[in-house]
Design goal:
The structure is a single chain. The chain is 44% helix and 15% strand. By secondary structure, the chain is of the alpha/beta class.
Length: 153
């Protein structure tokens, strides 16, 4: 990761970054996410699969949440995402009471993370240069697909 990022956050973000790269390799949008428990054990990870599955609802955070399976409580979990969560994914975090969100990049896109923080979710922004570069290149090279993903015309 980059200097100044604690090892545990860097390791968790690496899981999400690997998912983003897998999504890109599949011809999809390079956004990855992972859900961890309070001991930093991986519960589930996934990547944006809107293109691959022809499913508008399969964002990275949704895929990670789905892969984690049912949990008794989400209060002590951490959602790690390579990109600031959109309003849809921010709603998932609030609906299920996920306690912490780690954001790899909020330069390329700023979703609902401020709203999450205002409503008691701990939000940590890393702004990893590699993730910013990855997403910036994707947006530049795929503006129509990107605008579809974020609900823009």
């Amino acid at each position: 990761m980059n200097a100044g990022v604690p090892d545990d956050i860097g390791a968790m973000l690496r899981v999400a970054k690997d998912e983003a790269l897998a999504g890109l390799a599949e011809g999809g949008i390079p956004i990855g996410a992972a859900l961890f428990d309070s001991a930093r054990r991986l519960l589930g990870s996934g990547h944006n699969r809107r293109v691959q599955d022809d499913d508008a609802a399969m964002h990275a955070e949704t895929a990670a949440f789905h892969a984690a399976g049912r949990q008794r409580s989400y209060r002590d979990t951490t959602m790690v995402t390579t990109l600031s969560p959109c309003w849809y994914c921010s709603g998932l975090v609030r609906q299920f009471g996920i306690g912490r969100v780690i954001v790899g990049d909020d330069v390329s896109f700023l979703g609902g993370q401020d709203w999450l923080a205002e409503n008691g979710v701990e939000v940590i922004v890393v702004n990893d240069p590699e993730l910013i570069s990855l997403m910036g290149a994707f947006i530049r090279d795929n503006p129509t697909l990107w605008n579809e993903d974020i609900g823009e015309d």
